[in-house]
Amino acid sequence: MTTLLATERIKLLTTRSPWWSTLAALGLTIGFALIIALNASRPAEFEVSQTQFGYQFGLMVVLVMAALAVTTEYRFSTIRATFLAVPNRAAALLAKTGVVTALSVLIGLVAAFGSLGVSMLVLPDAPLALDSAAEWRAVIGVPLVFGVAAVIAVAVGVLLRQSAGAIAVLLIWSMLVENLVTLIPDVGQDIRNWMPFAMSEQFLLGPFDERPLGPWGSLAYFAGVGVALLIAALAVARRRDA
Amino acid sequence: MIEARGLSKRYGKTLAVDNLSFSVTPGRVTGFLGPNGAGKSTTMRMILGLDTPTGGSALIGGKPYADLKHPLRTVGALLDAKWVHPNRSARGHLRWLARSNQLPAKRVDEVLDLVGLSGVANKRAGGFSLGMSQRLGIAGALLGDPQVLLFDEPVNGLDPEGILWIRKFMHRLADEGRTVFVSSHLLSEMALTAQDLIVIGRGRLIAHSSTEEFVAAATENTVRVRSPQLAVLRGALGRTGVSLRDEGDSLVVSGMESADIGELAAANGVVLHELSPQRGSLEEAFMQLTGDSVEYHTDLDAPAAADLIAAGK
Asked: For this UniProt entry, which segments traverse the membrane (chain A) (predicted)?
């Protein structure tokens, strides 16, 4: 597996899109945190969770980057070259998932602490020390959410094989569908509470009194969706003609 | 050694490959010949484990491709020169391939040198010409120094220099004792490249023999004769029972060697202006053999279409 991980690392880092994605994800997330901090009306009441509002931007970029890491392989048929070199398709795709997830976690880590850092610089008087579990979760949770999002995006990429299709599904689902279901009378909000990306938001920011699962339960649910999609994707890739 | 046993592939209603059995032996270039759409690429993809056969099996050195550990060390394949990320450099492309089969990084520079791409190793592969892409593909196939090589239409779209280079390269690989399996839809190209031929049409095996035998059996040998006394000669030839055909001011004789015709002419006091053995065209022979098995016919030679054209409609 180390061989396969090294192979996928070379593949990922010898094209330019992951570098641009990393820059974009960091720039957007930290830049948004900077704008929020600069416009804080009451610095003394500025909370840790407010420094992380920009994570949604980074999340979108991670979804796109992770999906492209697979769909460009299908687009340029390098997936066939990959399966020729590594006939165990599940192992090859797992290695790819691992590498893309690791990069996404790294992006999330830098984005989260970068956002916290610039906020601290701009608002030296704000109570931004990480004192409580909730405050830690709001920051350290970002890389975890990015990691699971990468798994979901890779799986969708394998299943759909097309860049435009995969990106459309991922962005429309996470940005529109999960929010629009609340328009359904009576049950809308309940449905939304069980949606995967809504779960990831609940994990990061709460509140939990009205939500079905606690913080770590919410993350486990989100991760479960990722694992289920990945298993489906691997099964399909094994059976499908490359 | 490549072996196909009753290999079949069905796409919906179409049987792309139909119960194909053959073996490809080491030390020779074996041509895989058939018209477009005959099932050559599908067969190669099944041998390489990319497509799952509907029936039968394909083995390389006695094993299915999927069971090979570090397959690039056993089998090198070039199915399509464009299977490269356009923004990755030639070296980057070969680096990940080498790493995946635990081949030393210095092997990348060796194969780049071998195919003459060292000078553009760090250029993005998307900017390569077809000939350069083809060379990069061959470099990838040779990376693991494999004993078995498969090339799908490697000379398609290449200039004469590129074609010659690839042809020589195949011969060299076979001379080194490797199994070389090359597909093409051009018999004329295969006649120059391959020592053995496996000919298929509509997914079925048509012939499996040496190229020489195939060409000899497929082409009709005739002799063209011109003479001012053609009538006398025709009479003399007619008595021997060979078949004759008039072609302009000359006679085309089949079933008799040119030496015998010359002697017969001399015995009858006939002056000859031309006595030339004709080799039937390879492409014609190929068309004859695979004619019924071409998947997409043009209707141009159908009488109805000819009438339409004649009527100017």
From this structure: 20-41, 53-72, 93-118, 138-160, 167-185, 219-237
Q: How far is A187 from chain B (nearest CA, A)?
A: 44
| pTM for the full predicted model | 0.84
For chain A, list the strands marked E by DSSP.
Answer: none
Is the distance from CB of B203 to CB of B290 less than 8 angstroms? no
B203: its two tokens: 């997914």
User: Do A8 and A81 touch, CB atoms closer than 8 A?
Assistant: no
The structure tokens listed for A36 are 């929020």
A85 chain-B contacts, CB cut-off 8 A: 71-72, 97, 100-101
Closest CB to B88 among A14, A84, A241:
A14
Answer CATH for B2-217 from 3.40.190.290, 3.40.50.300, 3.40.630.30, 3.90.226.10: 3.40.50.300
Per-residue pLDDT of chain A (242 residues; tens, 9 = 90+): 899 999 999 999 998 888 999 999 999 999 999 999 999 888 888 989 999 999 999 999 999 999 999 999 999 999 999 999 999 999 999 999 999 999 999 999 999 999 999 999 999 988 888 888 889 999 999 999 999 999 999 999 999 999 999 999 999 999 999 999 999 999 998 999 999 999 999 999 877 777 788 899 999 999 999 999 999 999 999 999 98
Q: What CATH number does domain B220-279 carry, 3.30.420.40, 3.30.390.10, 3.40.50.300, 3.30.70.790? A: 3.30.70.790
